[in-house]
Fold this sequence. Notes:
By secondary structure, the chain is an alpha/beta fold. The protein has ten helices and nine strands.
Amino acid sequence: MDKILTKPTLVIITGMSGAGKTIAVQSMEDLGYFCVDNLPPVLIPKFAELIDQSQGRIGKVALVIDLRGREFFTALSESLGYIREHSSIHYEILFLDATDAVLVQRYKESRRRHPLAPDGNLLDGIQLERKLLEDLKGWAMQVIDTSNLKPAQLKERIVSRFSNLDRSTISINVTSFGFKYGIPIDADLIFDVRFLPNPHYVDSLRPKTGQDPEVYDYVMKWQETQTFLGKLLDMLQYLIPLYHKEGKSQIVIGIGCTGGKHRSVALAEYLGRMLGTSETETVKVSHRDAERDRHG
């Protein structure tokens, strides 16, 4: 049975222009959220008052907040502070991001103008926006990298996260990746395991991945692997409850090796089995690059 929320929920959708905010708000509408696009942050307290006064008739609200200048941050910070002090509403910030290359391609395909580069260089506008949004990304409870997500996949991620919002649990996403393909931009913690012995140099193991028993056993048999995992697991078991206490509903842990195929995959699989032992934690393991060169 779904858990009943005791407090109204306000989700603030923001992030890079072109990263998928339109799809996000459409997904929230499908979930029964009352949605408002491009609401000035200064009006958030008024909106909070309306929610409080609705006596439960308005229980789920999503607001799309776009960058409008430096005053944006002052107004947003003050508005969120007001909610914390004067309202019973629980709020979350969902930040959508994508790599510069992907954003440039999306703008070229849509032939839209970037809001910070109406007559100038598209890449300059994207990089300026990224710099201006650095602090806001740090405030976010959840960051989604949409670079490699199709619209349907982004919708699935949002529906999975917000359909049965349960603030008593924290979702732990462990993802393996290859440094040569870039660091996941939505990761909260990154760990580099390129110091471990590499199965790539064993001919029989090269075409396999860390999910195959032979590769997994090879990676795990070394003393440095066991020592590292012991220290890493101890640190994560200390950090995750503290993140949850501070209000984070999701944490993304990136484990990286050179190609994202052997060492990082094996360690991500191990962490997936060892974490999530508490009733307040759920764990999901994914492998971003494990199959990238499987046929190459």
